[in-house]
Amino acid sequence: MRKYYLRGLLCIFGMVLCCSCKKNDAKYEQESTMVPEQNQYENDSMDNCDEGWDDNVICTLVPYESEEPVRETESSNVTTKEPQTSQATKTPQTSQATKTPQPQQATKAPKTSQTAKPSSKSGTIPDSLKEISREDTLKSGKQGKIEKLTYDTWEAYSYEKKSQKLTKTAYVYVPYGYSISQKYNIFYLSHGMTCTEATYMGTDTYARSFKNVIDNAMADGRMKPMILVMLTYNNTSSTDSSDMTKCSYLTEHYQNELLNDLIPAVEGKYSTYADNTTLEGIKNSRDHRGFGGFSMGSIHTWCTFRQCLSYFRYFMPMCCPSYSANASQLAKSVTSQGYGKDDFFIFSAAGTNDFSHNDMQKQFDAMEKDSSGMFKTGHSESEGNMIFFSKQGYNHDGQSMDEFTYNALCFFWNEK
Question: DSSP 3-state helix, strand, coil percentages of the chain (rounded to 5)?
């Protein structure tokens, strides 16, 4: 165990050393996410992230009203029930049995019971990862929307005491044509060290061009329309993710906030497969929920796999292995939560120039050999329950984060 802990410290230390971020624009200044500091993100620069952004490739922040070139798409590719609205609303849910009080929620329409639950099975993964083209980054004719969601939670180190309430922010991507009459799969994304909930897609005011990639993939049918939630494990300050000791603790203990506060706030407002936001309701809809992250967000994903398998089916750890548990311990975490080898799928990747690559490769090799048959590599859920890609020449940076995320999201729930 000590060996894995030391490796973990080296990996996290490497995240700080590999920081090679570039500034996009002086007006996009990062601000705190926590109400106690009286700041919220309005224009986020993605500066100082451990992802090593390449401004010329993907790290472009674009105002929604900008005259950006629009990528042509065929209108027949996507069928939607109603036009995109500015805010999705449903009637309040009254049943709540989580450990903490239900945060204040927007109204929404009642969720009806499912008479025929759609299959959650995903499609077939190609032999190689697809790269994001310049055309993919152009504004789509069918744009989803990023919405800002605030919710109440508790300070992480004293969570059980509930002595210090926090109000935090998450950004929620809703697909083009979102309708409260339709149920959506949902995927939660966790960021790397020194980053925030605005890292993946931007904010409700300024979006990264990766949002265009998602819009175009859904419009073309390459990706199943889904809801994406960009969360943060930052606690009382947006700089918490700059401290590797805090990062380790906050990601290891995030399940309290995740299950009791964030998921109820998000899925109490948006139309998902959860009929209610009690722990039982979240558990019953696990097949339609995923969790993933890059770098420190990958370590966060492995923590979530070990602790919250009852509530998630799909996992996407990118560019950092599980240093806190070896292959045998990961397998035991599955059975200890009451599940088996057919109850999850892990999509993972790292670039060959990434400092975490060799440890990730060793971990997946060990998972295949030393887990008593729990883990098996496959290109579909009928073949196995995990896959690891080594991307030749790729680094620990924003290009890897975007392309690996894009490829994984094209696979989950997409029966093609």
Answer: 30, 15, 55
